[in-house]
């Protein structure tokens, strides 16, 4: 009670109001009656103290409003001394008026519960003096049916001591606040830009406030911010970036895979970029396992061709037996002169020419066996479905010719007669069956010629710029294989020219031309052979099937709704997520497809 400074707890102040509210304060118990209230660098005299948590300033608070603020009350020594004397006289007066022996235990025996059981009469205005050896005297007062206290009786302050007192409870740094952590009393945590101290042990799952304030579990700790320092000197100009360097690639093995690695840089100025990175699906990567595999699929052969243990240099090889898997020496060298082929079948002379051969007797010797320009004329009555017969003319008539247009809603599986057929409308393609793309174009049909495993071959050329070329075949059992798009020159990325300077701060990425899928039709299977970037138009209800092509890859398809857009259904994917498709005209979406070794996923991103 003799301290001139009181700063226990925190306060809340409001700009324009003289009322100050305390949190965890005890102004009345601490005998604060007057003095100067200081907070946020402002000091105002105290007009009155109403209770432990409320006081009134001499004039309205001129500063900013806030809660959980640190403060200090400076009391004058005369005020504190007078207040202590008044309190002592008042309490001793009550003690003198108390009938000793009723509810008063002079030697301090008994607990509060035992003293409550005494039930003094009258119930209030009793006091109890607790005196123990080597302990300060304490008073308890009976008011309102309960015991209040203890109120310590102290003597005059002793002389200053050079021996320091016991250390107080310090804060225990506990890092950033975590939901599942349990905090003890005085654990200090950070929460966003603020710091808080736990009020008690076992503090679990109680999030600190989002403002500069206290709550039941946490006390706000204001940050100590000093004055802003002077602006530092400007730093030195940084080194020049990578200017105009072109990567030098090498193909390296990664187990059964082959990838491209940057082994050097050429043609640039300034600091040369570091080498050693690999070409990934969307730029350079530092881990070889993330690089793009440029090795093609394994062939269908089994590598079972067997030759002799030794051979004569320059000698021709002949088959040994009828299996086609054994090779033997031909017994004669082949030096490039036709005379060395003595004893072998010849190509014949002009006198032995047959009308079914490429050249006739009148056209020349065997050097003329190639088809001659003058022999490309058609024969009267030739039937294109039969290619050419001896009666129809020369074999120059085997070229395909236009047969007919393809109607709307027709099935391309039924087109097996050789010739050229034309689909003039995109709507005719999207309304038909077994088209590679829902686009107008030309269909070429080739006869397999009676091969064991090939009955018919089809090639479809879309009417786009540049055109897309797709082909498939029908086996001897009548089963059609899937359409496969042939890659054009524009579809082959040139990685040697895709790295460019970008604002002198690093390397650019890759660019690609998006594959136009046109009107997507009723059913679309996304294929990586169309490239990693594709786009199409939703002009009717469409089902998009996950790609089944082997390998690991990513594909982005941009879909734009037309005025006749329909519902979009995703099928065959391991997992789909993201935004929902709409049918609003002009709405755009990005469909991100990722195929890994074990899954194919799709994510939809609405672009409006």
Structure characterization notes:
Helix content is 5%, strand content 33%. The chain is mainly beta. The strands form eleven sheets. It has an eight-stranded antiparallel sheet, with no helix packed on it. Strands 26-27-28-29-30-31 form a six-stranded mixed sheet. The longest helix is centred in the N-terminal third of the chain and has 20 residues, at 77-96. It starts with a strand and ends with a strand.
Which key features would you list for this structure?
eight-stranded antiparallel sheet; 5% helix; elongated; mainly beta; 608 residues; 40 strands; six-stranded mixed sheet; single chain
Looking at how many chains there are and whether they match, the oligomeric state comes to single chain
Biggest sheet: strands, sense, closure? 8 strands, antiparallel
Q: What is the CA-CA span between the terminal residues?
A: 69 Å
Uncertain stretches of 5 or more adjacent residues = 93-109, 347-355, 365-398, 495-508
Helix count, per DSSP?
A: 3
Please bin the fraction of helical residues. under 10%
In terms of structural class, how would the helical and strand content be classed? mainly beta
> Which strand order spans the largest sheet, edge to edge or round the barrel?
1-8-4-5-6-3-2-7
How much of the polypeptide forms β-strand, as a percent range?
Answer: 25-35%
Mean pLDDT: 79
Strand elements, count: 40
Radius of gyration: 48 Å
Overall, the morphology is: elongated
